[in-house]
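[Discussion] Sanity-checking designs against the backbone

I'm trying to build intuition for which residues belong where. Below is a structure token string of 176 positions. I'd appreciate it if someone posts a full sequence so I can compare it with mine line by line.
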């Protein structure tokens, strides 16, 4: 069964800039730069028919032209139990519309509705046993400068069940 999700790829130059933020956080498992992306819709483990239906539904997503993506700041998920550090993307209307299209495509393919609110971001590290103080210290030692790129396509990724994320395989690409 493939594990599927859709996303926007992060260009190599932006990924290299983000990779400079690696290190200095106890309990962090850093994501490899070639696996940086902005998830639009995680579907999970599906059978081949659902995967095929999802691919067909994605192919019907209305092209809207390239999307400007702006990474604004560092943030974390998890509050008192931090579980990830990420670069937060500006929540543009166009990005939300694209994510809504992917939600509809996933539901048409038989996936359950997504329960989490969409927060566009690039995960830099998954955390294990990192305290909120560790994360605060990490943030205070980093100077994050806005990074921007133009996404010209979205992709259907597959992955295997792994610790830390990746490697991800591009199964299909769709022009924006």
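Best answer:
Here's mine. Compare freely.
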């Amino acid at each position: 069964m493939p594990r599927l999700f859709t996303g926007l790829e992060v260009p190599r130059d932006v990924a290299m800039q983000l990779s400079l933020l690696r290190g200095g956080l106890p309990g962090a498992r850093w994501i490899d730069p070639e696996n940086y992306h902005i998830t639009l819709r995680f579907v999970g483990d599906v059978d081949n028919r659902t995967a095929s239906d999802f691919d067909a539904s994605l192919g019907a997503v209305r092209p809207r032209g390239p999307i400007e993506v702006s990474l604004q700041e560092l943030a974390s998920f998890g509050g008192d139990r931090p579980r990830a550090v990420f670069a937060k993307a500006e929540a543009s209307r166009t990005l939300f519309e694209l994510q809504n299209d992917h939600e509809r495509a996933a539901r048409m393919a038989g996936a359950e509705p997504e329960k989490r609110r969409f927060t566009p971001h690039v995960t830099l590290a998954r955390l294990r046993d990192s305290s909120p103080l560790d994360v605060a210290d990490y943030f205070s030692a980093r100077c994050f400068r806005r990074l921007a790129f133009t996404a010209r396509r979205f992709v259907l990724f597959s992955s295997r069940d792994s610790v830390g994320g990746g490697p991800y395989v591009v199964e299909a690409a769709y022009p924006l």
